[in-house]
Amino acid sequence: MDIVRRMNILGISYNYHDAAACLVRDGVPIAAAEEERFTRRKHDSRFPEQAIKYCLAEGGMEPSELECVVFYEKPAQKLERLLQIGKAFMPASAADVAKKFPKIVKEGLRVSHQLRQRVDFDGKVYFCEHHMSHAASAFFASPFDDAAVLTVDGVGEWSTCTQFVGHGQRLEKLREIHYPDSLGLLYSTLTAFLGFQVNDDEYKVMGLAAYGQPRFKPQIEEFITLFEDGGFALNLAYFSYMYDSHAMYAEAMTELLGPPRRRDEPIDQRHRDIAASLQAVTQDAMVGLARSCRKITGQRNLCLAGGLAYNCVANSQVVGRCGFDQVFIQPAAGDNGAALGAALWAYHEVYNMPRGHRGYHTLLGPQFTDEEILLSLDKFGLKSVRLSDDELCRRTARLVYENLIIGWFQGRMEFGPRALGNRSIIANPCSPDMKDILNNRVKLREDFRPFAPAVVAEAAATYFELDGPSPFMLLAPRVRPERAAQIPSVTHIDGTARVQTVSREQNPLFYRLLECFGEVSGVPMVINTSFNIRGEPIVCSPADAVMCFLGTDIDFLVIGNFLVSKA
Ligand SMILES: [Fe+2]
User: Fold this and answer.
1) Are 150 and 163 in contact (CB under 8 A)?
2) Residue 244: how many other CB atoms lie within 10 Å
3) Three-state SS for 304?
4) Boundaries of CATH 3.90.870.20 in the chain?
């Protein structure tokens, strides 16, 4: 009898933001999760001990059975950058260097030690370059044999933006732009300027942009020069993040844009216009980069990753304007997905294993049995009825149609920041008041932020100007003008919507729910927003879901096959 030896590789990312772990078996991602989901601390950047333990348990294996662990960046190079930049901006940078230095030395340079101490792993550890991790997370998870690959974020070791070409199991780096020139840090700096949280609220700035006019575009273009060849450079006179990661912008920026917004200050039209201007320049930059990828690689397919790839408005421009036939965007585009990329990189590039797996999906997190679900319901004294799949979808669709808000908890948790139908709050997209109701009663978030629709894939083109699938909610096409009045709660002020297309193969139960809602309403679509409240990570376990349900005005909880009411 042949004994088939499995190759298990664990990728990890931590020590910056969104710590995560991912287990890849024979080239196939079989488990992945962010640490925040377990610790319940949003964007938890600490060593992902619980995420690693989850991945190993899901894989049914001991740490000693891992072929290797791969860290998502090279801490020694990061340290070198900190010291070199610190030296260049002394003495202003002294406090920043003093703060970051021990963190990198203590955490980043002691990955093997941490693995030994915390999860009892004593084997091989590899280090993959930060942007290679991002690139691998997109290309090796994509359906393409050949593609151009673009990664754009704040900063890795030195690189802030990298262009690759991928062929089969190989990724070749063609060009990179180095810190301190950074499109991600431009976006983050303006995020700070507008009184939002850096590394967290960039998507709020994107939402706000739709309410403004880009009348500050000439000023933003003072901050960044876009070159003909797709490259860019920042005018550092306007920035201070090189030596002060707290403030991020220099006085010169205030002179051009007016006073920055304090966190507690109301948002006015100037703030909206600054957001719109930043978004417009960012889109120009992303389009320029993607077009240059097309030109230098000659490839017809593009893969995208890095924090900027969460900017679904810019993504739609890239899809529509850069000459690619197909675009794959890694749904865990930030440093969480870099854990996945690091593991895939090792499998293909270190162990020289061929591509094989296709059909990446995000349902890589924990799932729970009926017994575990019932235990949580009992603990909180909640009554439930157990329904068949079909009855569950029919009843839920009817409740959504009656404008009730439903917590929808099914199967495996999503990996990445978007809930895609397994840890979702769902509501009626046709009700004009639903956006405000959801914001006020459940999500407790800013009223300018749009809600996203999940629609059956076959009907997507009926409602949206969308040519292909958008399974990960990473594109923001226009709502067809004649349909906008029908789905007011998911149509953003600028006439777009951040669409998730759902196919039967991808998520049969969620698909069935959308179908059932279509049967009662005529519109096979629901509002799909993540199952959490402001400031908290998406729910992971049944207990998290029950607590969120009880702590908010969510009307019903559908958890597994159980329909739960508060009465
Ligand atoms: Fe990154």
Assistant:
1) yes
2) 16
3) strand
4) 370-565
| Topology of the domain covering 8-141+333-350 | Nucleotidyltransferase; domain 5 (3.30.420)
Q: Which residues contact 458 (CB under 8 A, 6 or more apart)?
A: none
d(CA 26, CA 46): 28
Q: What is the pLDDT of residues 13-29, one digit of tens each?
A: 998 889 999 999 999 99
**pLDDT at 45 (0 to 100):** 94
Residues of the chain with CATH 3.30.420.40: 8-141+333-350, 159-164+176-329
Query: Domain 159-164+176-329: which topology?
Result: Nucleotidyltransferase; domain 5 (3.30.420)
C-alpha of residue 522 to centroid of ligand 1, in Å: 42
The CATH number assigned to the domain with range 370-565 reads: 3.90.870.20
Q: Give the pLDDT confidence score for residue 1 in this predicted structure.
A: 52
Instruction: Name every residue whose Cβ is closer than 8 Å to that of residue 260 and which is 6 or more positions away in sequence.
Output: 192, 193, 194, 195, 249, 254
- 474 within 8 A of 312, measured Cβ to Cβ: yes
What would the pLDDT profile of 96-150 be if each residue is shown by its tens digit?
Answer: 888 888 888 877 778 999 999 999 999 999 999 999 999 999 999 999 999 999 9
Q: How far is the CA of 273 from the centre of ligand 1 (A)?
A: 28
Residues with beta carbon < 5 A to ion ligand 1?
153, 335
Element (DSSP H or E) covering residue 203: helix 202-209
176 CA distance to ligand 1 middle (Å): 14
Positions of the chain with pLDDT lower than 50, given as ranges = none
What is the token pair recorded at 553? 């005005």
Tell how far the Cα of 307 is from the centroid of ligand 1, in angstroms: 6
Cβ atoms of 560 and 373 within 8 Å: the answer is yes
- Residue type at 221 in one-letter notation: E
Taking the centre of ligand 1 as the mean of its atom positions, its distance from the CA of residue 134, in whole angstroms, is: 7
Q: What pLDDT does 126 receive?
A: 97
514, 428 contact by CB (below 8 A): no
What single-letter DSSP state applies at residue 301?
E
**Tokens, residue 186:** 């431009």
- The residues that are catalytic are 17
DSSP 73: S
Give the chain's length: 567
DSSP-based three-state secondary structure for 3? coil
* CA-based nearest residue to 73, from 42, 104, 46, 99: 104
Distance of CA 23 from the midpoint of ligand 1 (Å): 19
Ligand 1 centroid to 177 CA: how many Å? 14
| Residue 334 CA, ligand 1 centroid: distance in Å | 5
Q: How far is CA 106 from CA 48, 85, 101, in A?
A: 15, 20, 8
Sign of the dihedral defined by the CA atoms of residues 558, 561, 566, 567, in that order: positive
Structure confidence at residue 2 (pLDDT) = 54
Enter the DSSP assignment of 109.
G
CA distance linking residue 226 with residue 211, whole number of Å:
25
Among residues 255, 228, 13, which one has the least CA distance to residue 127? Answer: 13
CA atoms lying within 13 Å on the CB side of residue 238: 23
